[in-house]
Design a protein that fits this description.
Helix content is 32%, strand content 27%. By secondary structure, the protein is of the alpha/beta class. The strands form 8 sheets. It has a 6-stranded parallel sheet with strand order 1-6-3-2-10-21. The longest helix has 23 residues, at 399-421. The two termini are 15 Å apart. Bound molecules: flavin-adenine dinucleotide (FAD). Flavin-adenine dinucleotide is lined by residues 37-43, 62-65, 68, 71-72, 74-75, 106-107, 133-135, 158, 190-191, 194, 198, 284, 286, 318-320, 328-331, 333, 362-363.
């Protein structure tokens, strides 16, 4: 198994640690080297598909975490319907079955001229192509009083793992009759239905264990994705429990008082027994530092190759991209990653480059036995990525259809995570 950890490096002298990587690089002079940064939905897919489709390429995946917890389905954990363990995946199969070299470390910088990436441990890895899939970072300066320290009291839980566990603990210890405040961010952000799915599934939990509790959504927007489906479900499953306040009513969230546990909008201050602040977002920090993000905070990419428009030779996939009409979802990250992997394989091995196919399929839970879905096909052109076909559940669907969607969603999770990590 080719799997290094930063801790592993730490028990050796620094020079030895770096040397541990170098022989591998030196031995592989005839093999093209691709470094993939970030082992989430996008990065794991690029690494796996590149290693599987072009065994002559040496693929190295850099990811700080030993195990990855999926954001997708994490709202089910908040509802008490899944364990966090069942949402957590390792990199062993990528290493053992596909021959991906997995390095548990963080990339601090990319040198596009010298074609190396610098790791936190001090090592430098040379590359022929580099792919960045760092996910998102939060714009902490946009809500007064909300910074990284504040996330320990008012979690965002928008990266899954310890933040999700903290939010679940707070919901469990919240008194019946308390108000759970969800602050929903401005567009574009990771998983457009996510905040509203979270409100639905926390309401499902409250309905059983804290029936007097309320949920207040303070939105930075005046409408949201699948709004009719959510509002119909809230009326049917949780009447009187969920209140949604659009920005036009409140003037938007301006500040939080972490010690006083309240959220302040332009017009009013709302006390919160539990506050889930999901701040506005941008491409992950490394993308910002490497000059891959533009003034929007996201990384513009060539729609056909996912090569950066700002730094030629560097590819970006997943949530960090600004990719036309594509939403920020794991399915989209996976779909972009496959296109990117085949483009790189073709460039480095001379293999045929298949036409790009880009899709999104997303299941959203409204209750334990009520789920909806959307399926979108995209058309990439030289300039942008447009929607070519879209199919979304309707309010008129019957309970059987919704129950079937729950079963399909469970099957999707198993198949999809197998596609990423298995
Ligand atoms: C509550 C919620 C529900 C969701 N539900 C769904 C759903 O049902 N379906 C769906 O398709 N999507 C869903 N999503 C969205 C999905 O989780 C994201 O779109 C997806 O994870 C994006 O993949 P990514 O690879 O771009 O980023 P990530 O999956 O976040 O991976 C980024 C990785 O990069 C690593 N990294 C960052 N910086 C560095 C660095 N400097 N060096 C090395 N590694 C680095 C990070 O550690 C991380 O593991 C949901 C999201 C949330 C929050």
């Amino acid at each position: 198994m080719k799997c290094w950890t930063r801790r592993g490096f730490g028990c050796l002298a620094r020079a030895t640690c770096i040397a541990a990587l170098v022989p591998r690089v030196a031995n592989s002079q005839v093999r093209a080297r691709v470094v993939v940064i970030g082992g989430g939905a996008g990065g794991a897919t690029v690494a796996k598909y590149l290693a599987a489709s072009a065994p002559t390429i040496e693929v190295t995946l850099i990811e700080p975490k030993a195990r990855y917890t999926t954001c997708f389905f994490s709202n089910l954990y908040l509802a008490g319907l899944r364990s966090l363990e069942s949402l957590t995946h390792g990199y062993e199969t990528l290493a053992q079955r596909y021959g991906v070299t997995v390095v548990h470390d963080s990339v601090m910088a990319i040198d596009p001229v010298g074609k190396t990436v610098a790791l936190e441990s001090g090592a430098k890895l040379p590359y022929d192509r580099v792919v960045l899939a760092p996910g998102i970072a939060f714009k902490y300066d946009t809500i007064e009083g909300y910074d990284e320290t504040a996330t320990q009291t008012m979690p965002h839980a928008w990266n899954a793992g310890p933040q999700t566990r903290l939010l679940r603990q707070q919901l469990e210890s919240m008194e019946d009759g308390g108000v759970f405040v969800v602050v929903a961010p401005s567009d574009p952000f990771r998983c457009p239905p996510g905040p509203y799915e979270r409100a639905s599934l926390v309401a499902y939990y409250f309905k059983q264990y804290k029936p007097r509790a309320k949920i207040l959504i303070l939105d930075a927007k005046d409408s949201f994705f699948e709004q009719d489906l959510f509002q119909d479900a809230w009326n049917r499953h949780y009447p009187g429990m969920i209140e949604w306040l659009p920005a036009q009513f409140t003037g938007g969230v301006k500040a939080v008082d972490v010690s006083g546990r309240s959220v302040k909008t332009a017009s009013e201050t709302f006390p919160a027994a539990v506050a889930n602040i999901i701040p506005p977002q941008m491409a992950g920090q490394l993308a910002q530092r490497a000059g891959l993000a533009d003034g929007t905070g996201w990384c513009p990419v060539d729609p056909l190759t996912f090569e950066s428009k700002l730094q030629p030779g560097i590819h970006v996939v997943g949530d960090a991209t600004s990719a036309g009409a594509m939403p920020k979802s794991a399915f989209v990250a996976n779909s972009q990653a496959k296109v990117c992997a085949f483009v790189i394989a073709a460039a480095l091995t001379g293999s045929e480059r298949p036409a790009p196919h880009l899709f999104n399929t997303c299941f959203t839970f409204l209750a334990a036995d009520d789920a909806v879905s959307d399926a979108i096909t995209f058309e990439p052109t030289a300039e942008t990525i447009k929607i070519s076909d879209i199919l979304i559940s309707t309010v008129s669907e019957n309970a059987d259809t919704r129950r079937r969607a729950v079963r399909q969603a469970e099957g999707w999770y198993a198949a999809f995570t197998h596609d990423l990590f298995g």
